[in-house]
Specification:
two-stranded parallel ribbon
Amino acid sequence: MTLIVNSYLLLAALQRFIDRRGMVLDRLTATSMLALMTDWYRDEPIHSVDHTVSADVLVYRYGGWSEGCVTGFKLSLLRRVTDSRANDGKTDWFAGITMLFDPNRYTAVEPFSVVSSEQPSLDAFIHAIEDSSAFKLSAPATAMGSLLESGGIR
């Protein structure tokens, strides 16, 4: 059980899970990222100390291009936890992994996003990811880089 109150604690919980698994972020493949994130989701329920976690979902998205000195096609699997408080409304905290791939292979791939709650089961969600065009292109490819991503949205 993981207690959260902000995005930093959610990110720290992901980092601890990665460390316990003996995984190295820069050596992840799209396939191992999918397995790692779904295992974290299944094995580590999220709870809050003094308010309600009203949703705990995985979000798979791809498309768009990173900015800065290196550009790449982004493929992400994030865990989004919705924290509901009576006075403050809702806050979505998220943490996950984003991988960057050589953009030349993905020029015909349209941006896409799906949430695990939109599928009838977690297995159906995993199958939808594995069936996506970006995942099929990314599975045999080596990522240019991988990073942990976190944040919050009110």
